[in-house]
Design goal:
This protein is mainly alpha-helical and 450 residues long. The protein contains 21 helices and no strands. The radius of gyration is 22 Å and the shape is globular.
């Protein structure tokens, strides 16, 4: 029996290596059939490893790293954002402020401020090149490191970017394991993140820096559970300085800080937030100029009022608005949604119990999930935050979502780009259906315990 399982493990590991190689080096994102076939196949060995090899931590860590290294020299084929990363990094290496200059301005003037400017601009596309960069300072540092590593080769820069992402994922495994031990949860839960094909493809494969953001977030959560809140605030601020999204979590820490002593807890909570905001302001100082804030906020605001992709509740609101008003009301809905999200976060901050470690992390998961359920733009890699948080909770709907979110990539099979709303509807029917089932199961268990 043991030999039989070993043979299965070898076969499925080899199958995974083959499929990851094909996805890294032979995939055309316009070939949707090839994409979903290979993607869904990868979840077969993933589920097997999680179930049958869950106690073999060394093996699971090893294959998690090996699967990522397969992508090391591959040019991302499901995202072109990395061209902008390389552009920003090389701009800084030249002493130019990436927040103040549009790539299209240089190209239209026939001036190449950096090496391979034309290739990078062509790769990122006119849409990306016509907007100011919105990546925070620590993320810009990641890009700068890639430029230092190689300033004249796109492949060389890709390798440097990818190594940083792989190292961040190793850090997530390390601190995630420690959090699971602290919560007395199965240590192998971390591989729901580390071996998830979605995570490997979207982060290591497509070069999205959510992994670095999540590394600092998970590290800071571990420090918070250790009651080292001042150091946690420092690390948390670095997470925000990679991607702004962790700022949504700040109010949810209120009950954690005030659970033992109200007055001192409020002071510590306010200090925690002040450190995070203060450090991020300091990190922007090297880029400071008279119009930095205006250009940066205008770029960030585009995600709420201009872009639409793979949305769920927003698409329903858009349809209703079009039905009654006769046109797309993204400008109105986009401004209203952040207000609704803030109200929701305040409600679960004040009226939901967030005092135990698992209650706190579950609140973070609920808060970020609500935001992504209502957003106008839900790119696949955004889901990575939900996946890692779910590892420390009783919820598994983000894992299910990580399987079906690939349906959103059907939009790239069309020229020009166009979403298939039937597939989007199917994606969210599966996600909301499973979430509802989980809520009912968790309530049933809670009633049984009482």
């Amino acid at each position: 029996m043991l030999l039989h399982q070993k043979n299965k493990t070898i076969i499925l590991s080899s199958l995974s290596v083959l499929i990851y190689f094909l996805m890294a080096h032979c995939l055309d994102r316009s070939n949707f059939t090839q994409l979903i076939t290979q993607y869904f196949i990868l979840f077969i060995p993933f589920l097997y490893f999680i179930k049958k090899e869950k106690n073999n931590v060394t093996f699971l860590v090893a294959i998690a790293i090996i699967f990522r290294l397969i992508f090391l020299t591959a040019i991302p084929n499901l995202s072109q954002d990395f061209y902008r990363f390389i552009w920003d990094g090389r701009m800084m290496l030249k002493g130019l402020n990436p927040y103040l200059h549009l790539p299209e301005t240089f190209i239209n003037q026939g001036y190449a401020p950096i090496n391979q400017a034309t290739e990078l601009y062509s790769g990122m596309g006119a849409l990306n090149g016509s907007h100011y960069t919105n990546y925070p300072p620590i993320n810009q540092l990641n890009f700068f490191i890639a430029a230092l590593f190689n300033n004249s080769s796109i492949i060389g820069s890709i390798i440097a970017l990818r190594l940083q992402i792989i190292l961040a994922d190793i850090g997530i495994i390390y601190f995630g394991k420690k959090i699971l031990e602290k919560l007395k949860l199965p240590v192998h839960n971390i591989f729901l993140y580390a071996l998830n094909p979605f995570i490997i493809i979207e982060l290591t494969g497509n070069l999205h820096f959510e992994s670095v953001m999540l590394f600092f977030l998970v590290w800071s959560l571990y420090l918070i559970l250790q009651k080292k809140w001042s150091l946690a605030a420092l690390i948390f601020s670095l997470s925000v300085a990679v991607k702004l999204i962790p700022l949504l979590f700040l109010p949810l820490f209120y009950q954690w800080f005030t659970k033992d002593e109200k007055r001192k807890g409020i002071l510590n909570f306010l200090s925690f937030g002040a450190i995070i905001i203060g450090i991020n302001m300091l990190l922007f100082l090297p880029f400071l100029s008279s119009d930095l804030l205006d250009k940066y906020l205008s770029s960030v605001g585009l995600w709420f009022q201009k872009f639409e992709f793979n949305a769920s509740l927003y698409y329903i609101a858009r349809a209703l608005g079009t039905l009654f008003r006769g046109y797309n009301e993204i400008a109105i809905i986009g401004k209203t949604t952040p207000v609704i999200v803030v109200i929701f976060l305040l409600i679960i901050t004040l009226f939901r119990k967030n005092k135990s470690p698992q209650q706190l992390i579950t609140a973070l998961l609920i808060g970020i999930s609500f935001y992504y359920f209502t957003t106008t733009t839900m790119h696949p890699w955004y889901l990575t935050t939900l996946v890692i948080l779910s590892v420390f909770t009783n919820y598994r709907f983000p894992i299910v979502w990580s399987v079906v979110i690939v349906l959103s990539y059907q939009a790239y099979a069309n020229i020009p780009w166009k979403e298939n709303l039937w597939l989007i509807a199917l994606e969210y029917l599966v996600v909301y259906g499973f979430l509802l089932w989980e809520i009912l199961q968790i309530k049933k268990k809670s009633l049984a315990i009482k």
